[in-house]
UniProtKB/TrEMBL annotation, chains A, B:
Residues 331-467 form the Acetyl-CoA hydrolase/transferase C-terminal domain. CoA binds at residues 362, 382, 386, 406. InterPro entries: AcetylCoA_hyd_C, AcetylCoA_hyd_C_sf, ActCoA_hydro, ActCoA_hydro_N, NagB/RpiA_transferase-like, Succinate_CoA_transferase. It comes from the Bacteria. The active site is at residue 292. GO terms for molecular function: acetate CoA-transferase activity; acetyl-CoA hydrolase activity. Keywords: Hydrolase. This is Acetyl-CoA hydrolase. It comes from Corynebacterium sphenisci DSM 44792. Pfam families: AcetylCoA_hyd_C, AcetylCoA_hydro.
Amino acid sequence: MSDRISHQGLRGKVMSADDAAQLIKPGDQIGFSGFTGAGYPKEMPGAIARRITEATERGEEFRINVLTGASTAPELDGVLAETGGVNWRAPYQSDPTLRGKINDGTTYYSDIHLSHSGQMTTQGFFGPVDVAIVEAVRIKEDGSIVPSSSVGNSVNYLQAAERIIIEVNEWQSAELEGMHDIWLPGLPPARQIIPIEESGQRIGKAAIDIDPAKVVAVVETNAPDRNSPFKPLDEDSKRIAGHLIDFFEHEVAQGRLPENLLPLQSGVGNIANAVLAGLLDSKFENLTSYTEVIQDGMIELLDNGTMSVASATSFALSPDAADRMNEKASDYAKKIILRPQEVSNHAEVIRRLGVISCNGLIEADIYGNVNSTHIMGTKMMNGLGGSGDFTRNAYISTFVSPSTAKGGDISAIVPMVSHVDHTEHDVMVIITEQGLADLRGLAPRQRAKVVIDKCAHPDYKEALTEYVERAEKQPKVGMHTPHDLREALGWHQRFLETGSMKA
Amino acid sequence: MSDRISHQGLRGKVMSADDAAQLIKPGDQIGFSGFTGAGYPKEMPGAIARRITEATERGEEFRINVLTGASTAPELDGVLAETGGVNWRAPYQSDPTLRGKINDGTTYYSDIHLSHSGQMTTQGFFGPVDVAIVEAVRIKEDGSIVPSSSVGNSVNYLQAAERIIIEVNEWQSAELEGMHDIWLPGLPPARQIIPIEESGQRIGKAAIDIDPAKVVAVVETNAPDRNSPFKPLDEDSKRIAGHLIDFFEHEVAQGRLPENLLPLQSGVGNIANAVLAGLLDSKFENLTSYTEVIQDGMIELLDNGTMSVASATSFALSPDAADRMNEKASDYAKKIILRPQEVSNHAEVIRRLGVISCNGLIEADIYGNVNSTHIMGTKMMNGLGGSGDFTRNAYISTFVSPSTAKGGDISAIVPMVSHVDHTEHDVMVIITEQGLADLRGLAPRQRAKVVIDKCAHPDYKEALTEYVERAEKQPKVGMHTPHDLREALGWHQRFLETGSMKA
């Protein structure tokens, strides 16, 4: 048995994943660890999926509700979704199989701000958490758990759950111990001030206290996180990064940002990674980050000293970077802090520190509303994630995207977005490879001019301008936000009918 | 001269409003005091309007940008809008004349979260503030200003402005001194923790420090606030209040709220006032409020002891209640605190205290998105106000509205809202006179069932249900948020064409 299980009583609970899965009941609501493919349990979900499939084959109803930190991996969301046994899922996912089940109506998906999901669970808004299944680096003598490559909502789920199952994963470096900062503000009326005044400040403990009496099983695993490689930087991503860095330089010159900027938040994905890579070659120094996920680009900034400290709740690394992290985790723990997502994404800290947010979008409209979640207004892509947590409390909120998708058949700039995740009141800057639209202080009609001029692809500029002109001539139109309601969603309908937004 | 001007140097700056208006230049950006018709300067706007009109008649261009706390009154927004000389306005208004200018394209309006507007001014996002024009109860010996019936953004504007004009209003009770709590968190990277842990906690000073050298004029006035009477409670408002109070009782019974609830925020208007009146007759005790505006209903709760303390940034009282306030201001100062709107509406405090928010809506859609600002997608009604500040950080967010408007020709529940101010991710509870929809933890299709069942007017229920059924059958539809994009905004278009949403 692994020497990573130091609590005597819990050593007696070690069993196989399939035996532990027998402790899961139909209808259970399960809180899993895991955030952006890091720190999720590797074997239990598969064992539960087998149990669901067997029950279904016997003609029994066996469905579960699944809570996590954020997205996981094929070994969690994928295998569970495959069974058709996921009744309800929150707060974020990015798995192709699960996405299919959400969009065909098999699975109900509640797309919740990541910083609110743990709090809402603790507040009892989703009903009881029956089981928490959490990956750990090790179990300490007192039963407390050292989390692995993410913290996510594990603390909330471990506190709320009736039963606990721990996966101790030998693949995760034991040196991650000390990187985590475990602290939650509690519930009102006694919710505490979050005393973080700098990204790098530690306020909590290195491990999660649990009640060992609630642990019903401990499973030993040795398996890597989902870690997938980033794509090589393409020209569009480099241009987007260039526009953003120019903007930063301009804001510093205008005295609206300090020379080392303010703490950066960077969404997940290739463009965000390109922005970080762009900062590597910029003149900026002593950067800090208060974000939710640490990607390769941020590790490089930490490695070369451009960034001094990064606070997050999870990693999302390439396999190579994950190997380096595992080798040098105790070194990185001096510059990296992993917090519960309720704290990494908390309005209070984000607004206090003045975080500069940078997130992707699916589409933006001419008036500055952003859709981050829905394809053509009805199909869920991934979810909101932490984009709302950061955007709505940011000192400066930015969104990045190529100006077209599907080989040019979709314009990322449309007359009216088909779903709104970030309102005109929260979106300050939109950037495409075409340019940067600074919307701060502008009224909707002023925004339309700037968005079309700076961000839209040349193939769509004329059509957008003509839309505005027609909208302004509609009978009974308000000139605050002119629209032709018959045509506002027409680009999306055309795409559904013809495969292109082009007329 | 008034004995309310105790600073010797500033006594020498006393002049008429018309003389002071000569100090305003074309193109000036002016930050006015004032919030929900309380504490705005009474004479300077009229004098500036006269100056604009005279210049315009001479053929000169004279336009200004107007910042305030929130809505003001005919004597400010009304007279300035009448001239056509308001180029740009932020962050909130409710004036009929100004609304007309916004919707006919004369005035650009930037509809900004109230808690962000002061901060964004200080951050320099709107350019320099040329003049601050602020109403005061008195000017103290050291030149500091005792604000009147609102605090709003006055501190930010006084700090940012190049020139300052003070209106000292004898109508406002001198006993208001001591009710205000002047404190701002500053700017990042040195922004401070807001140390408020209870609604009633005072953290600042009773007056606003200014640089007397920046004061170019002091004007003496004696005029009441806009105070308008509330309508008598109608049956719909009473039913809405009843549903909300039943919900509170249920949440307490389920252990999800303490017996004295959590601090209440209540939007402005008759329904919000009805909810407060409903609490007066309920079994709840020891209530507290952390809100932006104190209306008559809240004063009654404080008077009869049902509520122990109320924190806000402004009053919005009937003439009778305003008279009582002026008579007993020093008594009320023990239970009422007026803060800068950056603090009264701040994400950090709202989330820490666990505020229960209650705001009106123009329309909600079946999936839980809320439109608070736009009529038929294009015309600005008033603006977002503080609804976003509170909703997005609330412990429980609620929205209240009658289920129909315009004698039944408009349904407040529609297939898709024509503008989104509060996304599906932030709206927890919707209440009409028909009933209450608790949307917490529900996926969009689940929400549609509950919203139609509980909130829609019987005249529109069948049409909404049929819409969902048709939407679910659309080719290529995603079953996460089913829509027929050709029909989603069809109810609004029908209203524009026929005067009714009814088919």
